[in-house]
Structure formats: C-alpha cells, structure tokens
Amino acid sequence: MIVVPDDYPSVFAGSDAEERAKALGSVRVFTGRGADDENELARRIGNSQIAINIRAHAHFSEAVLAACPALRMISIWGTGTDNIDLAAAARRGVTVCNTAGVNAIAVAEHALALMLAVARKIPQIDRAMRGGAWPREMLGQLNGKTLGVFGAGAIGTHVARLARAFGMTVLGWSARGDAARLEAAGMTPASKADILRRADFITLHVRLAPGTRGLIGADEFAAMKPTAILVNTGRGPLVDRAALVAALAGGRIAGAGLDVFHDEPLKPDDPLLRLDAAVLSPHNAGQTAEVRRDGLLRVVENIANYLRGAPTNVVSAAP
Known about the structure:
Blueprint: E1 2-4, H1 16-22, E2 27-29, H2 38-45, E3 50-53, H3 62-67, E4 73-76, H4 86-91, E5 95-97, H5 104-119, H6 122-130, E6 146-150, H7 154-165, E7 169-173, H8 179-184, E8 188-189, H9 192-198, E9 201-204, H10 218-223, E10 229-232, H11 241-249, E11 255-258, E12 278-280, H12 289-307, E13 314-316
Parallel strand pairs: 1-2, 1-3, 3-4, 4-5, 6-7, 6-9, 7-8, 9-10, 10-11, 11-12
Antiparallel strand pairs: 5-13
C-alpha cells in the first residue's frame, strides 16, 4: 500500500500523480491536519510499505519508523530531508528518495525577487502609496554588486546564472569544496570569511545539517557590510534567529528577504513581523504550477523505479 499521510494543505489528492500512483498499488491519502503529531503520523502510515512525504511538518523520527515496521520507502516531494531521521531509516531498511532539482528554477527566481524587493523597498513603497504618500527615497540595484552564494546545488547554480545576467559579480561557497562546479556556474570560489566581507548580497542554498545549522550567526553578521542584504530560501535554522533579529533591528545589515523560518507558520508575536527591513514570504518560493506538477509526478516515478529494483534520486538507501 502507498500512503500519503500529510497532504495538508492538499496538493496530491485529485492530481495526475495520484492517478499514476494508483496504477502501482492501492493508495490512501490523508488531507486533514494532524501529521505533525508523531503518534498520528505513525497511525496514518500503519502497515503501508511506501509513504509519500508532502510536508516538512511530518517528522519521520526513530519512534515513527519503529512503529511502522512494514515501511520500506519514503518518497519526498521536495529536496529537504531534515524532517526524516536518515540514520534510523537506513538501520530499518527504508529507502529515502527526493525530487531535488525540480523546483530549482522557481526557487532561484524567488531568491532574486527577494533581493530586488528588499533593495528597492517595494513592500514599503507600496504600503506608503496606498496610504496617500509619494515616497522618493533612494533605492538599491543589483548591477555592479557582489553576490555571495552559499551552496552549489541546482538552486545555487541557477541563482548564479540569473545574478550574472543582472550584472553581478558572483562568489560561491560549497560545503564540499566543489570548486569545479562553482566555476562551471560562473562563480568564483571563495571562503566563507571572504564572502561575508565582500558581498553586497548573500543567499543561502545549502541543506540543513549539523554542519550548516546556524551557518549565519552573530559573528557572521558582524563580519558583513552594514549595507548587505541576506536572502534565505533554504531552511530557517541555517540562520541564528536571535542574531538575525538583532542584526535587522540594530541596523547591522540593511535588510533580509526570507522565505523560510524557525517557526512555520510564524507566530503572531514573531519580531520579524515588526521589522520593515525584512521582506517575508510563507515558504512558497517553489509554489508554481509547473513545480507542483513535475515534482508530484517525479515522486511517483521514484516509487515506480524503486518497485522495479532501480531506485532513482536516492538520498538514503536501505542496506
């Protein structure tokens, strides 16, 4: 049986992908809230052999995997795997696949949109005009500026290509030290310290892992230009939350464009909501019709390939 325990808000039910999945076996889709509770998530998975993971709020922990001994595969809609205990999955013989790269163009475009929105103060100007004002303050531009890209995956490399079209100089940092990949995308390989010191814009496109959690913190903000703008479309915890709020509130950096957060959705009292220097979007950088269609179909394709013994887009393989 194939189960989708976390299709809330629903994207899978009624899709072409659901119809294709039905050709592979019985399919059960849960479209209501509740998958963020581990006991409920385990109950929904039950004796299913394959789970399609739609939302990052569903945590496939050691406890969930232990409660679902029949589970043999998790097919993720998206790239991130921080909501899945990969070590526990490997120990229990569960193969994990994702759809890395499907949303690369959409997320890269959103990263550039956030850079422009912050630099050109579009949200603030729009609000002021709707209130009857005619603001004429100075704005920023991308042309001639230096962009620092953390991450050399599909999204980071596409961001670099778009940035170069805007006339930006692009510095790149890879967690794996992959200088050849950086150079192939038109980025000049640079150290973390060099990027922090030189970049006018910094954008984060690395996976959340123990080595990247808190990648940007108080020390990093202190090293950045006071005119610098930070963009994060990766994962909220890549940036130290308290340090980010302090840097924005204190004018330590010029602004931030954020699509991801420590708490999703944001709580009503989150201080980021009160900072004009931050432009916010609700983790929807990849929410385009094209990404949804192609990503969901890739999820089912990964399942079909796994069932025929040739798994694709494997993040963690069963021993």
